[in-house]
Design a protein that fits this description.
Elements lengths: L18 H13 L29 E4 L10 H6 L8 E5 L6 H14 L2 E5 L2 H4 L11 H15 L10 E2 L6 E5 L16 H10 L6 H4 L8 H16 L8 E4 L29 H4 L2 E6 L6 E5 L2 E5 L5 H7 L7 E4 L9 E3 L4 E3 L15 H8 L2
Parallel strand pairs: 1-2, 2-3, 5-6, 6-7, 7-9
Antiparallel strand pairs: 1-10, 4-5, 8-9, 11-12
Helix pairs in contact: 1-5, 3-5
Protein name: Metallophosphoesterase
InterPro entries: Calcineurin-like_PHP, Metallo-depent_PP-like, Pantetheine_PDE
Organism: Dietzia timorensis
């Protein structure tokens, strides 16, 4: 779906070494906003509710990921995202859309609604198109998106980490951009080249391999290494007594990828280098997306929330959490997402729905422990 009527041939030229040209591209994209996500489609099918079903009476930090706003059926979801309280913050954990014009439009729409928006990129934001601004290499695309966010007052991984001091605070909100390095291999004894070759033989190859141009980095894994080093330096300066919310589009621990039907795909889902970060950096919650498996679970005593919407064909089949914009701070008294299996396949439980649990991820005692931290 195209939401920008401008001729791509007229797009400004961006020189990644010239901050003024990056800023000009961001300004160009924002000035051409189509406001395509400001109102629901007429006659659209039922879409997820974004606010809370019970108003907590105070501001909260909420999160969502994988809006895939250009997908038919998801525009109404974006249009329906509203805060439950005027002071609500919203975390957007990647995969907003593929076209820069759509990304700018969605982020501008959300920035108008929520008191504060925190964004991290996903792999889809890095996909390169063929013409104009969408043909930029991924690091340059990222620079343009960061500048878009700065013009909108949105926090990114390049900005100081904001401190939430409302209910459940103080909590440091930490947006990260870390990518993947193929270290989550099905066979731990295989080299990276062997694991990728085996995946190709099984016809499991992420679209990233064709659409992410990491130049000037020689590879995505090299870019990932640079991002890890930079984030480590910044995180080491945090006050260790203040709990954090760690946000990354790709999960910080491999455990969530065990749910994948195709285990080869885990290679494009994160890096082993972050497995201890939730404990090392005092994480109250880790927020991620990418897997399109909305889930509340605990790893090493830390709460993990997969907050993706996904594609309509997915959420129409499995359902969606209600509310869709997941409460992150304060930690809810019960897991926000539960899966049930009625014998016809697993689905996400609606509010108050009971049945046979599809997977017992959390005991009541475990959740009480993380909620009481």
């Amino acid at each position: 779906m195209s939401s920008n009527s401008k001729d791509n041939s007229a797009d400004p030229v961006v020189n990644p070494a010239d901050p003024e040209s990056v800023a000009a591209a961001a300004d160009y994209l924002l000035s051409g906003r189509a406001h395509a996500f400001s109102a629901p489609d007429a006659g659209a099918a039922k879409t997820p509710e974004a606010g809370t079903d019970v108003d907590p009476g105070h501001a909260t930090v909420r999160a969502i990921a994988d809006l895939h706003a250009a997908s038919r059926g998801n525009r109404s979801v974006v249009a329906g995202l509203q805060p439950s309280h005027p002071g609500d913050w919203l975390i957007v954990a990647g995969d907003v859309a593929e076209r820069l014009a759509d990304i700018a439009d969605v982020l501008a729409t959300l920035a108008e609604r929520f008191a504060r928006v925190i964004w991290v990129p996903g792999n889809h934001e890095l996909w390169g198109g063929r013409i104009g601004l969408d043909g930029l290499a991924a690091p340059t695309r990222y620079a343009v998106m960061v500048e878009i966010c700065r013009q909108l007052g949105i926090d990114t991984p390049e900005d100081p980490y904001p401190l939430w001091e409302g209910a459940g605070g103080p909590v440091r909100i930490v947006p990260l951009f870390l990518l993947y390095d193929y270290s989550w291999r099905p066979d731990p004894h295989a080299s990276m080249s062997e694991a990728l070759a085996a995946a190709r033989e099984r016809r499991v190859v992420a679209t990233d391999e064709y659409l992410i141009d990491p130049a000037p980095f020689p590879s995505v894994s090299a870019w990932c290494s640079e991002r890890l080093a930079e984030a480590t330096r910044t995180l080491s300066r945090l006050d260790p007594s203040v709990p954090t919310v760690l946000i990354n589009h790709w999960p910080l621990h491999r455990e969530p990828t065990r749910m994948l039907f195709l285990q080869d795909f885990a290679m494009w889902c994160g890096t082993e280098h972050t497995s201890q970060w939730p404990l090392r950096y005092n994480a109250q919650t880790c927020v991620y997306g990418h897997l399109h498996i909305p889930r509340s679970h605990i790893v090493d005593g830390v709460r993990f929330e997969e907050v993706s919407l996904g594609y309509p064909r997915e959420w129409q089949r499995r359902g969606f959490p209600e509310p869709l914009a997941r409460q992150i701070v304060p930690v809810p008294q019960a897991p926000p997402v539960r899966w049930l299996d009625d014998g016809e396949g697993p689905h996400i439980a609606g509010p108050g729905e009971t049945g046979h649990p599809f997977r017992e991820d959390i005991t009541a005692d475990q959740w009480a422990e993380v909620a009481g931290k």
